[in-house]
Amino acid sequence: MNDTLHSHEAPIEHPGYGTFIGVWLLLLLLTGCLVGLSHVSQTYAVWGLMTLTPLKAGLVFYYFMHLKYEGPVFKIVILVTLGTLLIFFALLFSDVAFR
Amino acid sequence: MSGTHATTPEPSYLVDTGTRTGVMAWLTTTDHKRIGLLYLYSMMTFFFVGVGIGLVMRLVQLTTFQKLVTAQTYNAMFTVHGVIMIFLFVVPGLPAIFGNFFLPILIGAKDVSFPRLNLASWYFFIAGAILAVLSLFTGGGAPDTGWTFYAPFSLKTGTNVSLAVFAAFVLGFSSMLTGINFITTIHRMRAPGMHWFRMPLMCWALYSTAWIQLLATPIVAITLLLVILERFFGIGIFDPAKGGDPLLYQHLFWIYSHPAVYIMILPAMGAISEILPTFAKRPIFGYKAIAFSSMSIAGVGSLVWAHHMFTSGMSGMALMIFSLLTMVVAVPSAIKVFNWVSTLYKGSIDFQPPLLFALTFIFLFCIGGLTGVMQGALAINVHIHDTYFIVGHFHYVMFGGTGMALFAALLYWFPKMFGKMYSKKAIYASWFPMFIGFNMLYFGMMILGMMGMPRRYYVHLPQFHTMHVIATVGSWFLVLGLVIFFATLIYATFKGEKAEDNPWGGVTLEWTIPSPPPLENFDVIPTITRGPYHFEQEEHP
Fold first, then answer.
1. Quick count: other Cβ atoms within 10 Å of Cβ A69?
2. Considering the entire predicted model, what is its pTM?
3. Angle at CA of residue B273, ends B270 and B275, nearest 5°
């Protein structure tokens, strides 16, 4: 049955190792930035975590977990899920950040 | 809709047709209707245990019975009353009973998407219930934390909190699996021609509920596991002595438990939306508004959890945001009430017991809902937080709302489920003590709360005594009404007159098949050609 399904799917062009290595180096660079920010001050560390970590997760989703090659429905589902999570985080921070 | 009657009547789902018979046939059934009844019987058993505990708690407030139980036992009783009523009655509530029984029939299907998973959900439910009962008699005895298991007290108490929260964890699986099953069923198994906006409103209510069950329950499941880990290994996530944050527990608990209120009330609203058109003999007013208000209650209702924490020491910013969001969630609820009342307006009202209980729901739910909006205002909330006002309010919503809607739904669908009709006079006779007792008990509690009576107290000051007596006498009337109500239905199950296939003149799919329904519901899957509430076309075909 899988063969039948695959035969109807359009062939997907996967990137070469160069892209993966490039993304990995970028992830390492961002991790370095986060470590650096944590030495500056707690505020920088928190804002760094809140902005760069989702970016890192996005790169992993997009390239290593092949989200880039999925259909729009799948992308929308992931976006809505992450958006929902973000709303919950924001509401929690309305307490924690202003306490 | 095309005809759906079998030409040669098939045996009803109540007749054993498989290889097993008797109790084993029921315990291994994958038929959605039988599973619905398994939930009905088990939940009603738990309900009456909860009622009994509540009755004793009221008695303790009378001078004569003040020493009936000790203070520690009283603490255990309000915890167990809450755990039973919330986790074993109102949360599974209407979806488990009527969702299981009627969802496939309402959308023109033969069963749910995953019948075995459906049975597994019931076993998870029973396993959780057994663990909850075991927690009363093992370890350090019955938990004394209240059903909310607030940290840090739940981390420190010597009572058997670990097993009780594990029971709630297991019950959560039942809820999540039912949610997955209903979502898949509604997406994949609707009859040909049944578009989303041709579904009866009960299906919309079950659909929104299922999403909350699926998305919110894992949060409380993980939180309860953290409580167990903290109790056994002292990981320190909620314990302030170890740098943990007890407010984080409250946040995580209410992120689930407030939407859980909508798990309880949305299917109740769905049932009311089925009952009113049938007895007003006209289409529901504002079908799409009601359908979308269910979805928006599910959405916005998930963002208001911290209104349970207004006096917890949360930040001022969070107080304002959650107060505002709480006011917003009242809008879709009000939309429903206006639409229900408009449905009745100029209808050809056929006054029958299900309608009486549906109207009772609207009246009591409005009191519960409006007192909820009151509490959304910060200044009022500070005054009445943790008082009897809160207890009165949530009983208006949960019992006056979900409970009465469950009774209305039971009266409405009883002839279809069992093929028998009950004594309408006896049901009317049960309504009077139930309604009077209910209001004496819970409105009395709200007055006590306004006067300053704190909740969960074993004893009270003399100035509260008169209202306590009124509330306790009300509880006797309420229980009398409940006993007459259920005795009538149990009697009807065995000795009731045979019910017609469509005793109320309903137009949704369940009224097109025999009472009780055959095993696979429809001989031929119907083709749907119109919306669910077309009474005019019935009169003028």
1. 13
2. 0.90
3. 110
